[in-house]
Design brief:
The chain has helices spanning 3-8, 12-122, 141-152, 182-193, 200-203, 220-236; strands spanning 127-131, 160-163, 175-178, 213-216, 240-244, 247-251, 259-261. It contains 6 helices and 7 strands; from the N terminus they run H-H-E-H-E-E-H-H-E-H-E-E-E. It has a 4-stranded antiparallel β-sheet with strand order 2-3-1-4, with helices on one face. It is of the alpha+beta class and 271 residues long. Strand 5 and strand 6 (247-251) form a beta hairpin. Pfam families: Baculo_FP_2nd (PF25298). Residues 19-36 have a biased composition (Acidic residues). Residues 15-38 are annotated as: Disordered. Residues 219-271 form the FP protein C-terminal domain.
């Protein structure tokens, strides 16, 4: 064996040993690389998971902030609602008080109106109203009243007599007369109701054969009551509505109870 061959010669054991170490190194290196790849993948997954968790935590935090804001808004609205309820209660109490005061004032006004009406009606207790007498130039209402009262049953000399109201073309104004006596006023108004001879033609042959009516001189308030009573009585089928001694009466039918109308409330009795 020459020198070169000797320097390169190795025994079988050494040859086998060198081969095994080489494979071991290769296996170790490959294993480390695999482990590095696996660790890198796990780290990315972990980071991704952590990021997702952070995003969810951020969303939860945002929701918590919204809930806090909603709670604050609800508390504010609740305070406003409570204030609103208190204000409504206060306003309701004020309205109730005003309604009570209004009713009281209406009652006072009604009482005053009745008292004033009584005084006004008392000042008219000797007056009569005559309707249906045609107007003529230069007429003497004083003489007309004497003639009308004479036809009705008793001629009286009035204290005063005149046409009342503005002239209306084609319509005779009423004559207002003060007889100066309650007894004469009562006698003439009663007898005139059933006096068929009391016609315009009986006063003058030039006048038409139309009916003349004699009524009590009611106040404006009582005339309104009488007018309303007639309208309601007609709608309810009442047969009789009249006035006597400055009072208004309604009777639904013959022999029925008489309803006395003293004020607006009494109109509700007509039914």
């Amino acid at each position: 064996m020459n020198r070169d061959a000797k320097s390169k010669w190795e025994c079988d054991r050494c040859k086998n040993f060198d081969g095994e170490d080489g494979n071991a190194d290769e296996d170790s290196s490959s294993s480390e690389e695999d482990e590095g790849v696996q660790v890198s993948g796990d780290l990315k997954t972990l980071i991704k998971t952590v990021n997702e968790i952070n995003m969810k935590v951020s969303k939860i935090s945002a929701i918590e902030e919204q809930l806090v804001e909603m709670n604050t808004s609800m508390e504010f609205m609740n305070e406003k609602y409570e204030t609103f309820i208190v204000e409504i209660k206060t306003l309701t109490e004020k309205v109730s008080l005003l309604e009570a005061q209004n009713i009281a004032q209406k009652n006072v006004i009604s009482d005053l109106q009745i008292k004033v009406d009584r005084l006004e009606q008392d000042s008219r207790k000797t007056n009569i109203e005559i309707y249906g007498v045609p107007e003529s130039v230069g007429e003497n209402c004083y003489e007309v009243v004497k003639s009308v009262s004479g036809i009705a049953g008793k001629e009286v000399n009035p204290k005063s007599a005149f046409r009342l109201g503005p002239k209306v073309q084609g319509k005779a104004r009423m004559i207002l007369a003060d007889l100066g006596s309650e007894a004469d006023r009562e006698m003439i108004t009663k007898s005139a109701k059933g006096c068929s001879a009391l016609r315009a033609s009986a006063l003058s042959s030039a006048w038409p054969d139309s009916r003349i009516y004699v009524n009590e001189n009611l106040t404006s308030y009582r005339k309104g009551l009488l007018r309303n009573a007639k309208e309601i009585a007609k709608s309810k089928g009442a047969k009789f509505v009249w006035s006597r001694d400055f009072k208004i009466f309604v009777r639904m039918e013959e022999n029925a109870k008489v309803i006395v109308i003293n004020n607006e409330t009494d109109l509700l009795k007509i039914k």
